[in-house]
Amino acid sequence: MSKEEFANRRSALREMLEPEAIVILPSSPEQPRNGDVLYPYRQDSDFYYLTGFSEPQAVAVMIPGRTLGEYLVFCRESDPAAEAWNGRRAGLDGVCSEFGADDAFPITDIDDILPGLLENKKRIYYPMGRYKSFDQRLIQWVSQVGALGRSGIHAPDQFISSAQLVQEMRLFKSKFEINLMRKAAEISATAHINAMKIAKPGIKEYELEAELISTFVARGARSAAYPSIVGAGGNGCILHYIDNNSQINSGDLVLIDAGAEYEFYASDITRTFPINGRFTQEQKIVYEIVLEAQMAAIEAVRPGNCWNDPHEAAVKVITKGLVDMKILSGNLKKLIANESFRPYFMHRTGHWLGMDVHDVGEYKVDGEWRVLEEGMVTTVEPGLYFSNNIPGLDPKWWDIGIRIEDDVLVTEAGNEVLSDQAPKEVSTIEELIL
Ligand code: GLY
Ligand code: MN
Ligand code: MN
Description:
Helices cover 36% and strands 17% of the residues. It is α+β, with helices and mostly antiparallel strands. It has two domains: 3-170, Creatinase/prolidase N-terminal domain (Creatine Amidinohydrolase, Chain A, domain 1), CATH 3.40.350.10; 175-433, Creatinase/methionine aminopeptidase superfamily (Creatine Amidinohydrolase, Alpha-Beta Complex), CATH 3.90.230. Helix 5 (110-118) packs across helix 6, helix 8 (175-198) packs antiparallel against helix 9 (205-218) and helix 10 (281-299) runs antiparallel to helix 11 (309-324).
């Protein structure tokens, strides 16, 4: 099943190539080692998207029309001694039988073989600029072929960004991908619920983080998709707070932004809740505004709407809320036009989500906000942040930082909230914590 999925992706890419092309995709480099210890390796997303192959030290090559095989992979050879230390390898046979390569070569032979594959090709599709040392090797191979001009051999003279083509493909999720994203979201939602269940005043932020990670791993997601944010009180107003080392006291809200990566697909969920199980009056006022903004934004995620429509829907509710709270005053339209909400809501309402948490894909096409289409996945994550250093802010709002974030798939009929198992109604949250 998955072998076919990856083959389909390669065929789709092939369709987009100009004639006389060669596609060269390197795997991501390995992290530096600490003595004998290997740091966790994460495959390059574009490389994995097209190959399904998660090993390091690999290069995938596609040459449409090559009679001896169009899809070639350079990879590590089987080596029982090395595998006994560092884990199994597919080897040259495995990369053909399990991953669909037409032919495979040892990665150690790439300097000898790759230049020959470049001969008489017109253009190279390649993620130029992503990995500097591979860029240099590729330029070296091309100039080696260029030096053969007198033998009637020509070298490719066009470099085309493979990233642009692949990112456009990755923006539209297949059924296979949607199922993985559902699973990533389901695991993450369970992690949020588990963190709420153990919440109690006096607990440390990292204890909640431990609960999240434990749930991710126990359910088959081997890592978080990004560093988990667990921020109590004023820490919840720091957008990328990851210290997670404060004690959470009764009366504090805690903002948790955490999502698992499952089989290379990310989830990205934020929930905010009172550690003692009861929102104060002020916390509840702000919470309900953010929730209403989030629901309005989710409602705006549907085919035919523009990328910016959910953001505009959220901004409208947030600005009106700030007026009701008497933090802003004046004409609503003007306040929105002037972005008067910015000191309290300083980020955008969402981003594409997929193999990467801030996933690839253009947000504008020809200068206009992109139209939403079936298969796209976006986060919807408005927030309000009242840190205690905002001049003139009534202290009753201090240290209230609230964000609510879900993962939303654009469907034919509208949308599907992939992360909807994570509770966000005030009453459901209060019941779960007490
Ligand atoms: N967790 C990162 C973000 O919400 O964008
Ligand atoms: Mn997030
Ligand atoms: Mn996000």
